[in-house]
């Protein structure tokens, strides 16, 4: 029993240093995880035309993300109107919206038009996820 107390007295400062070191490593690891790691891609991205000029977009929380996603950035643009050919890349106007929700209605769209939508998740540190992407078409005039 005396030997045990003797070892405790000798190793006690080492144990405290070890705990402090381990705690420091854990804090550094968490900082690196939340600042450096990329969040998961939003999943189950779907789009449903509500009428001739708007689309309802829905998605789910990213899978396998270790950091807190605080917002989503959606980028959308016109791909093709009616039966016309696709729009040239230099004629594309991309629009962006951000939201903290898992759904968004985008409006002021053209009837009978195919739109491409990309979404990324953004962490508190400003790190972006990979993109999820879909294409959806608004209703023709008088179809809704």
Task: Describe it.
The protein has 144 residues and is α+β, with helices and mostly antiparallel strands. It folds into two domains: 1-36; 43-137, Immunoglobulins (Immunoglobulin-like), CATH 2.60.40.10. The chain contains one helix and seven strands. It has one helix spanning 2-36; strands at residues 43-51, 54-60, 69-81, 95-99, 103-106, 113-123, 132-137. It has a four-stranded antiparallel β-sheet, with no helix packed on it. The longest helix has 35 residues, at 2-36. 17% of the residues are buried.
CATH fold topology of the largest domain:
Immunoglobulin-like
- Average pLDDT confidence is 79
- Helix count equals 1
CATH class of the largest domain: Mainly Beta
Low-confidence segments, ≥5 residues, pLDDT <50?
1-16
- Which percent range fits the helix content? 10-25%
Q: From the 3D coordinates, which CATH architecture of the largest domain would you assign?
A: Sandwich
> Distance between the terminal alpha carbons, to the nearest Å?
85 Å
Ordered list of secondary-structure elements with their pairings:
Layout: H1 2-36, E1 43-51, E2 54-60, E3 69-81, E4 95-99, E5 103-106, E6 113-123, E7 132-137
Antiparallel strand pairs: 1-2, 2-5, 3-4, 3-6, 6-7
Brief account:
The protein is of the alpha+beta class and 144 residues long.
